[in-house]
Amino acid sequence: MEPLEHVPWPPEPIKTERLVLREPEARDRTAFIELLASPEANAYVGGPRPRDELQRELPETPERWPGSFVAELDGEMIGQVLLRRATAHRRPSAIGKADLGYLFLPRAWGFGYAAEACAAALGWLDSVLPGEQVVLTTQSANVSSLRLAGKLGFAEVERFEAWGAEQWLGLRVSSPAAR
Ligand SMILES: CC(C)(COP(=O)(O)OP(=O)(O)OC[C@H]1O[C@@H](n2cnc3c(N)ncnc32)[C@H](O)[C@@H]1OP(=O)(O)O)[C@@H](O)C(=O)NCCC(=O)NCCS
């Protein structure tokens, strides 16, 4: 996975009905640690990282690269939305396409924030790379992620085994109705 290339970055903060999407900042460091150390948030994405390791290793300002958004609610980071280039992928059909990922703090689940943030990030992508195809990989057992993928306009391409679990590969070709 690589950052998106040839996109103007950073964009002006993107305002949605309830959220702001923007680049990571130094003040997000604590929320990043909370997010990456959360057993619930990382249950289907490789497991949580030890908090003390994150405290030691995360840079002062969380890494910044084109396509890496923080979602902010009332001035506080509640999650991240990542748009990357799938330069390597287990399934050949995904290679070269844009790839959507999302990770939100459990206390922010169940309010539609992830859907709102992802729709805005995809809208940004449509504006800078019109017609870009977007893929999404998630464990088939990750029910809320699959529901979110559906809402965002992703349709199943295939299921495959990887990383010890069944994975779901979805593709979004046209603009989602959720925007
Ligand atoms: C996947 C994940 C982002 C989904 O979060 P989420 O909050 O369930 O997703 P949404 O933003 O779509 O919110 C949907 C829920 O908000 C509810 N909701 C409440 N108010 C709402 C509103 N104003 N608008 C929309 N939905 C609203 C919906 O009814 C729905 O609830 P339900 O799940 O009980 O049906 C979250 O579970 C997560 O961060 N998981 C860990 C990371 C991960 O597994 N990522 C997958 C790999 S990319």
Assign the CATH class: Alpha Beta
Shape, please? globular
Ranges with pLDDT <50 over ≥5 residues?
none
Q: Write down the domain tally.
A: 1
Bound molecules: coenzyme A
Number of helices: 4
Can you describe this structure in just a few lines?
The chain has helices at residues 29-37, 51-57, 113-128, 143-151, and strands at residues 2-3, 14-15, 20-22, 68-73, 76-85, 98-104, 134-139, 155-162, 165-172.
Descriptive report:
The protein has helices at residues 29-37, 51-57, 113-128, 143-151, and strands spanning 2-3, 14-15, 20-22, 68-73, 76-85, 98-104, 134-139, 155-162, 165-172. By secondary structure, it is an alpha+beta fold. The radius of gyration is 15 Å and the shape is globular. The two termini are 25 Å apart. The structure holds coenzyme A. Coenzyme A (COA) is lined by residues 41, 44-45, 101-104, 109-115, 138, 142, 144-145, 148, 151.
Protein traits:
9 strands, nine-stranded mixed β-sheet, 29% strand, globular, alpha+beta, 179 residues, 23% helix, binds coenzyme A, Aminopeptidase
Give me the secondary-structure topology.
Blueprint: E1 2-3, E2 14-15, E3 20-22, H1 29-37, H2 51-57, E4 68-73, E5 76-85, E6 98-104, H3 113-128, E7 134-139, H4 143-151, E8 155-162, E9 165-172
Parallel strand pairs: 6-7
Antiparallel strand pairs: 1-5, 2-3, 3-4, 4-5, 5-6, 7-9, 8-9
The structure holds coenzyme A.
Coenzyme A binds next to strand 6, helix 3 and helix 4.
